Amino acid sequence: MHSTSVPVLVNSADEKLSAIKEIRDLVAHRDLLWNLVRRDLTVRYKRSMIGFFWTMLNPLLTMMILTVVFSTIFRFEGIENFPTYFLSAYLVFGFFAQTTNQSMASLSWNGALMKRVRVPKSIFAVSTTLSGLVNLFLAYIPLFFIMLATGAPICLTVLYLPISFLLIAMFTLGVSLMLSALAVYFEDIQHMYQVVTIGLMYMTPIIYPISIVPYKWLWVIRINPLTHLVKLARDPVYGCTLPGQHVILASSAAAVIALVVGWVVFHRLARGFYLHV
Amino acid sequence: MSESAVEFQHVSLRFRIFAEQGINSFKEWAIRWITRRVRYRELVALSDVSFSVAAGHTVGIVGHNGAGKSTLLRVAAGILRPTGGTAIVRGRQAPVIELGLGFEAELSGRENIYFNGALLGRSPAEMEQRLEEIVAFADLHEFIDQPIRTYSTGMVARLAFAVATTVDAQILLLDEVLAVGDASFRIKCQDRLSAFRDAGVAILLVTHDLDAVETICDEALWLDKGVVRAFGSAPEIVARYKESVAEGPTVGGAIESTTFQG
User: Does ipTM top 0.90?
Assistant: First the structure.
């Protein structure tokens, strides 16, 4: 990893603390990144033998509850295969909500670490996003079983999912960077954000079809980036179609803007982490 | 003489903090921001610090609590970036700012060795090579596959010291780590430090143990409220420092703090 000649490891006059430098730093710390992801996953699954099956069980149970509620109590006309409709969007929203919430906690937890070794500070948001992605992939296994059981068609368009995941992960990382940096300064951000998460869930067409939204409120749904990101993951699974051009465009724009804004905020606030964690 | 391993040129470090205590909620901050009542205070942690450590030399840092000793070590470790001046560190460093850093209670001693190595920027391959040596030094053969939560405090400290110092490094940064373990382990630690020094490793040592500074260190740096009071041969600095402690509270030095609106 380091050359044999004596390298200058720390030179504070080196002012290039840019995004590119951070990425290079993350690559140099890839062993640590891998260790953090593995720690996240083992601590999560090690505790119980059914740990792995729990990830499978959770969407299954959620689906059962929501299917009962929405196919017998509230009924939306014209949604076939409701479980698939719902889960194909809910899984990625769940990834977004869990990862953003966890990164806030993880940056504060790892504050002691940051004070004592030189690590790229964004590594905690990145590792949380990566372990979230692993969980997301795993959650698709029960979804496909559910689709088989309910007779929903499975098409080759699911091969598009990795591209959807990439854009969703970029967006999630951007939001995580921003929120985790703010959470270091303000304790109440975490609690406020939990409420925001619930609001976002209902601002996104996950449970209901977009067609039931009154015209007057349609703009609210449309400016919500998650609407497009969720559609990006739903279309290949539920609709058997590739996402349309405007969905791809809106999603890519959301991903890039979130990442840039998230990084700028994170970088500006990172200097003061030392006094606040 | 070749280039110094650690070189501080007029290093200053200032923090901007909220002037009022307790702005730690967003609500509070937002209200103050809207009413334009967010005030900041400047905190000077280090002020115009210059010194250097040559390869194979050991420099002890002495001073009262809050004098900026640990801050200085963190600047050398690259954890904090100075707001003024230049800090240059030439070589691979092993920072031991706190022992047992990042140890995970649920993971075994072995897994923790790899995790800790990764934190210090060491590859798994390198840690694998060193594993035997680490386990032998920490004297933990039977326990290495047990979760760390079953270890005693002394065992954890031994493992931590072993991991931190069983690595290739040209610079060692030690913060109050000599006081771990029993007497025999402490002797082992001191032997290891001398071995490092003979191998040309530069050591920066923060400790309250003035006898250790006198016996281990070549030079000493006396910090007082972020300002260098004196830098020179270890016995001389320790003598002057002891004298000043005997005289009572120090005068001089400066933590300026100015309040301003931001």
Answer: no
Search chain B and give the residue with CA nearest A17. B81
Q: Could you read off the pLDDT of A39-96 as tens digits, one per residue?
A: 888 766 665 556 667 766 776 787 778 777 877 777 777 788 888 898 899 999 999 9
Q: Is residue A8 part of a domain?
A: no
Domain that holds residue A38: 29-276
Q: Is B225 on the interface with A (CB under 8 A)?
A: no
Chain mean position to CA B24: 28
B55-81+92-249 belongs to which CATH class?
Answer: alpha beta
Q: How far is CA A12 from CA A59, B7, B80, B85, in A?
A: 49, 11, 9, 8
* Rounded-to-integer distance, Cα A148 and Cα B15, Å: 59
User: Which B residues in the span 118-147 are in contact with A, Cβ-Cβ below 8 Å?
Assistant: 118-124
Residues of chain B with Cβ-Cβ distance to A1 below 8 Å are 121, 123
Give me the number of domains chain A comprises: 1
How far, in Å, CA of B70 to CA of B219, rounded?
A: 17
Distance CA B124, CA B111 (A): 11
Q: How close, in Å, is residue A47 to chain B by CA atoms?
A: 9
∠ at Cα A158 (A156, A162), nearest 5°?
135
Residue A156 lies in a domain: yes
How far apart CA A186 and CA A142 sit, in angstroms, is 38
Let me know if residue A4 belongs to a domain: no
pLDDT digits (tens, 9 = 90+) for B140-164: 888 999 988 898 888 888 888 888 7
pTM (2 d.p.):
0.82
Domain ranges of chain B: 55-81+92-249
Query: Residue-wise over B4-38: b if at least 16 C-beta within 10 A, else e?
Result: bbbbbbebbbbbebbbeeebebbebbeeeeeeeeb
Contact B79 A188 (CB under 8 A): no
- Which letter, b or e, does each residue of A93-105 get, where b requires 16 or more Cβ atoms within 10 Å of its Cβ? bbbbbbbbbbbbe
A187 located within any domain: yes
